[in-house]
Amino acid sequence: MAVLHRATGPVTDGASPVPALGPVTRGSVVRVGIATLISAVCGYLVLYLAARDLEPAGFSVFAVFWGAFGLLAGAANGLLQESTREVREVAQAGAARYPTGPRIRPIRVAVLVGLASAATVAVTAPLWSSHVFVESRWLSVGLLAAGIAGFCVHATLLGVLAGVNRWSQYGALIVGDAIGRVAVAITTFLVGWALVGYLWATVAGSMAWLILLLASPASRAAARLLTPGTVGTFLRGATHSIAAAGASAILVMGFPVLLKATSADLGAAGGVVILAVTLTRAPLLVPLTAMQGNLIAYFVDQREARLRALLMPTLVVIGLGALAVAIAGLAGPWLLTAAFGPQYQASGTLLAWLTAAAIAIALLTLTGAAAVAAALHRAYAAGWVGATLASTLLLLLPLDLATRTVVALMCGPLVGIGVHLVALRKGAPSVSV
Question: 243, 78 in Cβ contact below 8 A?
């Protein structure tokens, strides 16, 4: 049975010890950063191929499925957050803090959660699928169910790897997911599978975790780690993270679904707005999403000064965001039409405002990571849920599609940031595992 020791880090059944736990280093950030860059390029390539291969109206259909899977996968990232915190807290405290009592293996819990999630999608599909999926309805439902089952294990393995500083394997898993998607998308573009092929491409990377486990002994050792508590205690902590991650996913990956739900008909204009939103937020949100493990591990290590620890990443986000706003406003319209065709036209003003809105969501992501690290699960969930509700209400304003999109994405996140900062200022409660 896996036991956790302060001196050597977690040890697994018959496996060599995982390296001793240390702080999150610049080297680890660089490794994950490179993996994130590769993932972002692959993501852009999938969107590029889909937008070039499909008309704007067809692209909006694909984008809704892309968003639906992103919404569920984003919610599953709550498992990443909870497993990172659990494993790192225990590794820091050492085995002496948890000498007896029940223990669980997070990966096994993830398998159960994945199967339950897939069953829920399949059973409830008759209630909602006709309102969300315009074409290839039942194929979309089947792919969504299978994809989320695999991604639950993917997210939990990322969390365990982050908890024990296995950053090379963490990055490899991110890259494997991205390469799986782009490989199917390229094949679709060349062979002419059209919409159906891009639906398959969306979920193609959700089994990358299995390849990593087969290829990497270090990853298999990490997957065998145990944490104190029962399945129930783990899921109680994960439930808040999943709820908050689900709310964040609505604003990030699932925004096309939210836009569809609050609009009578998206059509070609909706395809242009969705593509503009996706492209302007990716430079900030793709790296932050991929580096959730780094961020949570960093904030766990800075338990005595989490508000102060927020300062540096906040300045980095604002600085990079300001640069992105300038580029989007000046060169965005030309880049959009040059890359995706003359049918995709948006003003520089719209692209600049959408990029500024991405800064607000990026800052909410940072404060959320700090809240998770402090075990402020309720405040974390309340912040993201509040931001999502505020954005949803703002999308109902009697404004044109582009304007209400900017207003919703700019103002909604401010609610969540306020909730997180107030909770962090009051301080984390004592954590019992």
Answer: yes
Please give the pLDDT value at position 22.
54
- Residue 210 maps to a domain: yes
Distance CA 275, CA 3 (A): 48
Q: Containing domain of residue 179, as a range? A: 16-426
The pTM for the full model equals 0.74
In terms of Cα–Cα distance, which of 73, 61, 71, 63 is closest to 279? 63
CB contact at 8 A, 106 and 15 = no
Angle value at C-alpha 22, between 39 and 163, nearest 5 degrees: 50
List of long-range contacts for 108-112, beta carbons under 8 Å, 24+ apart: 109/156, 109/231, 109/234, 109/235, 110/79, 110/83, 110/152, 110/153, 110/155, 110/156, 110/157, 111/152, 111/153, 112/231
**Tokens 């590029």 appear where?**
48
> What DSSP designation does 290 have?
H
Residue pLDDT, tens place only, 407-427: 999 999 999 999 999 999 886
Residue 2 domain-assigned (yes or no): no
Q: Would residue 287 count as lying in a domain?
A: yes
Highest-pLDDT range among 133-142, 234-243, 263-272: 133-142
- CA 370 to chain centroid, in Å, comes to 16
Residue 304, number of CB atoms within 10 A of its CB? 7
Residue 159 lies in a domain: yes
Tokens describing residue 72: 């569920």
Over residues 156-172, mean pLDDT = 91
- Other C-beta atoms closer than 10 Å to the C-beta of 130 total 10
Question: Which phi-psi region, left, alpha or beta, contains residue 9 (left: φ > 0; alpha: ψ -120 to 50)?
Answer: left
Give counts: helices (H), strands (E), the chain: 17, 4
Residue 405 vs residue 131, higher pLDDT: 405
Average pLDDT of 325-346?
88
Task: Work out how many domains the chain is built from and give that number.
Answer: 1
DSSP state of 253: T
pLDDT digits (tens, 9 = 90+) for 92-133: 665 555 556 778 899 999 999 999 999 999 999 999 888 888
pLDDT at 431: 38
